[in-house]
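Practice problem: predict the structure.
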Amino acid sequence: MSKKYDLIIVGGGAGGLSGGVFAVKAGLKVLIVERLNKAGRKIVATGGGRCNLTRDIPVGELLEGYFGKKTFVRSAIYSLLPQQIMTFFESLGLKCVIEDGGGVYPDSYKAQDVLKVLESEYLRLGGEFEFDTQVDEILQEGYTVCGVASKGRKFFGGSVLIAGGGCSMKELGSDGSAFKLAKDVGHKVLQPLAGLVGLVVPCLNGADVPGLSLKATVQVGLGKRSEKLFGDILFTHKGLSGPVILDLSRFISQAINDNGGCEIFVSWGGYNREFWEVVIARARIEAGKKSFYSLLCEYFPKRFVSYIFSVAGGTGDIQLSELKNSYKDKVFGILVDSKFEVSRTEGFAKSMVTCGGVFTKEINPKTMQSKLAENLYFAGEVIDVDGRCGGYNLQWAFSSAHLAIKNVSAMTNRMH
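Answer:
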């Protein structure tokens, strides 16, 4: 006789584990089915191992961080707001700290502690795991979901929550198999693309800039429109990364997918040409013997200044009083409008989130339930929702799981 659960959760990541805790707290009999041999592998890797849980900012500002999906995510976010996430983790014994800018972290700054309290609470309240188990089928009776199957083994449940993530960081659990499950039930899946990912920029190879972080305004040309952000850029051994690049990478991935490449334009420091003209005019009057190199070093790291002059094909040793306008204009042109050709990102192996996924119009945003199958729910990255860097995606995983469980619990109680 097969065991019957109130809820079967596919995937033991952030959405699956938090959903499991919410469900067992509501008195449901729950099974989490996980492909790997342990839960929460991806949680441990989030935020560089520090785990940015959410963002303590006004909810209107938070909703704007989901790239045009604020209407769809609204009910879920209001179901579990940032302050409630902090209260939830503190109730599990994990205190939170809020950094300047609103980033929320465990006070230990250890993502492992987030996983530990979620897993401990889930098991303490009687939740069950099935590890090393790849779900390959959603079981249905007509249009009603009744469980899952793995290599012939069947697990029966009153409801199923698919929280199996996207395609990012396959070795940590998200291998795209959740998309296949959704497709098999009849759901449309928008093409998955790498998001929150660094860029491979070949022209930077050999430049002595890896490890440097600078403020900049970055603009991405997208046909008739463009996206622009100001913030930190990080030079890597492969190209460019940092918060601004990560936040724009969803658009860059789309452009590469559509057109085979993408151009990005960078204004270093965020300064325009007029700013530099004023700076150099004043410096020529006050310190005409100062070198061009020394002037720029007042605004940027020395290694970066050397890189700028190498791109300009000249030297910065020349005194400001002897600087020719043609060379000055060339350097200023690079500072305010550096162009980089990008033909690829670092891909799913390095991306923190997947853009694309289960079509939102086929999911009820007030319940997270499928519109195509009774008793089937979705949470987290498997849905075509992705957020900015800095806590938005974990917030979405927790909130969407919370809303789904609230509705599963209500339905289960009605049936009992």
